[in-house]
Amino acid sequence: MSKILSFLLLFALFLPLSAQAVRIEISAPGEQTIPLALTRFLPMGKATADSASEIDAVLNADLDLSGLFELADRAAFLSDAEKLGLHSTQVDFAQWRLLGVDAVVKGGYRIDGENLTIEARLYDVVTRQLLTGRRYVGRIGDERRIAHSFADQIMLALTGKKGPFNSRLAYISTRSGHKELYLMEVDGHNPVRLTDHRSIVLDPDFSPVRKEVVYTSYKKSNPDLYRKEIYTGSEARLSQRPGLNTGGRYRADGGELAVTLSKGNNSDIYLLGTDGSIHKRLTTHWGIDVAPSWSPEGDKIAFVSDRRGNPHIFIVDIDSLKVERLTFEGRYSATPAWSPTGEWIAFTRRTEGQFDIFLIRPDGTGEHRLTFAPGTKEHPRFSPDGRFLVYSLDFEREKSIHVMRIDGTGDRRLSAPGGNDTHPAWSGYWQ
Amino acid sequence: MQFKAVLKLTVLLALASLLSVGCAKNPKADEASQVAQTEMQQEKIAEVSEQAVSEQGSMSEGGMAHDSMGKMISSLTRVNFEYDQYVLTADARETLKKNASYLKAKGVRVQIEGHCDERGSDEYNLALGENRALTVKKFLVSLGVPAERLSIISYGEEVPLVMSNTEEAWSQNRRAEFKELN
After folding, report:
1. Measured between CB atoms, which of B44, B120, B153 is closest to A334?
2. Whether the predicted interface score ipTM is above 0.85
3. Which domain holds residue A29?
4. Are residues A59 and A37 in the same domain?
5. Is A6–B11 a contact, with Cβ atoms under 8 angstroms apart?
6. Domains parsed from chain B with CATH numbers
7. Residue A266 and residue A144 in one domain
8. Alpha-carbon distances, residue A173 vs A84, A182, A191, A203 (angstroms)
């Protein structure tokens, strides 16, 4: 009799526990946050403290920017945070439950000569299960990339959609005295210069399928369209027609590019093959048509036109070539960027003497302003997961690159002080 | 009372045994197989190394504007435009008439550069600058300057004449310049 009773009691005890498991679908940041404990990664054998600090700083910053987590205060951590046990049977989940967290991140690292191994785990505190586990094998110096990569994994495990932190940003900087193309990590670290044109390089975009960037440069006097392989450094001119060859944007599958060509006469939007040949002319109007941006399905292109007087955003259907006007408010709307989720088109609009970033749905509804701080904001571009926007800020004669969540929260500066950094482009998922 | 205490103990024991069974069912190998291994890519980015600041022709930002504009022809005067406009003002027309006489007399080839102020999107300004250069070219041709001697280029907002964000600076930066070729 007592045995049956005890089983019934057990059942009653376990039912609510398993129902609380941490898998929560979150479609937008800020809706709901997951209480998470991020422990400091511990050395497995001989190791340096530098690796731990670096991993820790990157994970902290990424998870904080995501806006998806409420990170538990480390002062409250108990003895399990100091224990290396990485198997679920070795984790003292009761301690973590006491802190009220739903999930805990634990990890360790080993340095063997030049080689670095990082073990990283995410556990569901309630069900005591491994949610995601990764072993990263790299070299000393890979700590940041590895930590970004695991932050992306944590977001995948807890929301069903991978994070963008291991991707890259391309941008234009004048640090060398000329406008050149640079590449950096999405938190602004490790900037490297990719071009040495000593001319004017403008408006980069990433190939979604290859480690390649496309941009405009005046290297050979005319604003021509170039492409460059990031790892081999090999560069080629893609379009060198008289006049503007600007605003190159790859379709989501990398198969074609949308581009602005003027042929020395009038700017219109065209489709090019990856060999630079013209596949189709999309607009035919005496007005200015510039700044194309693809829909994720690749069936429509948003662009800027002054065909109705002031610059506004329009959308052209690639099949029918039918053009529809998207924005009506204000007197100057520019630089549309279509979200990879298809839900939003970001653009800039002149407000009170400055430009600010707005979002609008592709059907013209839901228009709202995201930025209100002083300074002109330009060139909004979405992260590959659609959760974040990167843009350039021109404030008090200094141009810097910023990132924020698509609800306008979490804004932070990415580029180093004192630079003149503009025109960011966000790569696709990098690995 | 006693029954309750026994019951509590039973529950705890059962719980403990169930947990240990649960652990036994979850051998290390199972969880280990869930841990994917990622080899970090070691290919190096084709980075451009920073060159020395003192190299020939390398200029500060202010100097860059002058560098890419090249040699100005003293007898050809630049013309200015209204905000977001590429139609010629009355002043600009007068200036261009003088420029046309000079060009017809000298027979030189000239590149007309269209420029904008920094306000507005840079893609749009590239197109606007081109329209400014084109308008100037068409007007000069209408005054009898051979079209084949005139080429155009737009620098958008990339090469300001005056590095400042005042109305005065902006009005000077909205311009078409003339550069002698060959």
Report:
1. B120
2. yes
3. 18-159
4. yes
5. yes
6. 76-180 (3.30.1330.60)
7. no
8. 43, 7, 10, 11
DSSP characters over A39-80: PPPEESSS--HHHHHHHHHHHHHHHHHHT-EEEPPGGG--GG
Residues A203 and A119 in one domain: no
Whether B120 and chain A come into contact, CB under 8 Å, resolves to yes
User: What predicted TM-score, i.e. pTM, was given to this entire model?
Assistant: 0.86
Q: Does A13 reside within a domain?
A: no
| Domain total of chain A | 2
DSSP B65-90: HHHHH-PBPTTS--EE--TT--SPPH
B31 — contact with chain A (CB < 8 Å)?
yes
Whether residue A220 sits in one domain with residue A97: no
Q: Are residues A241 and A382 in the same domain?
A: yes
Contact B48 A121 (CB under 8 A): no
Whether B121 and A9 lie within 8 Å, measured CB to CB: no
Tens place of pLDDT per residue across chain A (431 aa): 344 444 444 444 444 333 344 444 444 544 689 999 999 999 998 767 788 999 999 999 999 999 999 999 999 999 999 998 888 899 999 999 999 999 999 999 999 888 999 999 999 999 999 999 999 999 999 999 999 999 999 999 999 999 999 999 999 999 999 999 999 999 999 999 999 999 999 999 999 988 999 999 999 999 999 999 999 999 999 999 999 999 999 999 999 999 999 998 999 999 999 999 999 999 999 999 999 999 999 999 999 999 999 999 999 999 999 999 999 999 999 999 999 999 999 999 999 889 999 999 999 999 999 999 999 999 999 999 999 999 999 998 899 999 999 999 999 999 988 779 999 999 999 87
Nearest by CB: A335 against B37, B44, B121 = B121
